[in-house]
């Protein structure tokens, strides 16, 4: 595989956890290793549980646009044109009231500038997948296109210039890590990400795709490259790479076009 040149082709952050993404050209790294402003806000219920797609399917039909410069968030329901705009800090009460009315129970929008609200608190770095992998997965489902698959998997960094499942080179045995670099930023590849019910649903409506998980597991098993560290697959419902970043990387920037270089595995 010495002839491939992996490079960052897309970057996404999700300012409000579980809501829609923002495409960006460059992003800084926080001290925690997370991307700045990624999952910076999250919606919680009265039991202090996340209101997300895993727990509440109504999340899928909620469309959001987030302006990173103004902190204005625009919300509307899928299939409607009426948008409700809130300043996420100055109009927090009004935002929580609108969301509470939509979900049918009181909610609180919390903010964490230091770490955000990652699913994996042990490995809170950006998730990585390749464009070719998304294309391969789309081919497994006649009714899905690549963009819909991209929306379902909600990764931060998309890599082009490589074949499908190339990113599986970015993890190894459980006690070890793969060290690599994107641009000037050092990474540690940890493990293939365990998926949840969210990827089985339409990203815009929440409608479940029949037998999505069964098909995914069967195809993932048969397409798993021979060189993959198979000990990391206690099951095959895994895709994209979880990462950690050393504290030394705080403040460094990841940009579209940056090349990815593996140092060890």
TrEMBL record:
InterPro entries: MoCF_Sase_C, MOCOS_middle, Pyrv_Knase-like_insert_dom_sf. PROSITE patterns: MOSC (PS51340). GO terms for molecular function: catalytic activity; molybdenum ion binding; pyridoxal phosphate binding. Pfam families: MOSC, MOSC_N. Residues 92-263 form the MOSC domain. SUPFAM superfamilies: MOSC N-terminal domain-like, PK beta-barrel domain-like. This is MOSC domain-containing protein.
């Amino acid at each position: 595989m010495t002839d491939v040149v992996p490079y960052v082709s897309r970057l996404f952050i999700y300012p409000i956890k579980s809501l829609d993404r923002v495409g960006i050209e460059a992003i800084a790294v926080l001290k925690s290793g997370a991307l700045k402003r990624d999952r910076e806000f999250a919606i919680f219920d009265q039991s202090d549980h996340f209101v997300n797609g895993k727990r509440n399917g109504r999340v899928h039909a909620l469309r959001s646009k987030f302006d990173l410069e103004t902190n204005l968030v625009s919300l509307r329901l899928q299939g409607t044109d009426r948008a409700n705009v809130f300043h996420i800090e100055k109009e927090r009460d009004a935002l929580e009231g609108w969301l509470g009315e939509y979900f049918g129970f009181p909610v609180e929008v919390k903010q964490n500038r230091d770490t955000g609200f990652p699913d994996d608190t042990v490995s809170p770095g950006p998730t990585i997948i390749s464009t070719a992998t998304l294309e391969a997965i789309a081919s497994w489902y006649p009714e899905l296109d690549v963009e819909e698959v991209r929306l379902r998997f909600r990764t931060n960094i998309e890599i082009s210039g490589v074949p499908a499942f190339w990113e599986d080179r970015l993890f190894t045995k459980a006690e070890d890590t793969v060290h690599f670099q994107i641009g000037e930023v050092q990474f540690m590849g940890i493990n293939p990400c365990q998926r949840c019910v969210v990827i089985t649903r339409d990203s815009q409506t929440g409608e479940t795709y029949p037998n999505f998980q069964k098909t995914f597991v069967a195809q993932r098993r048969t397409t798993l490259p021979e060189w993959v560290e198979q000990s990391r697959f206690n099951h095959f419902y895994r895709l994209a790479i979880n990462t950690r970043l050393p504290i030394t990387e705080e403040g460094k920037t990841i940009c579209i076009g940056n090349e990815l270089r593996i140092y060890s595995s």
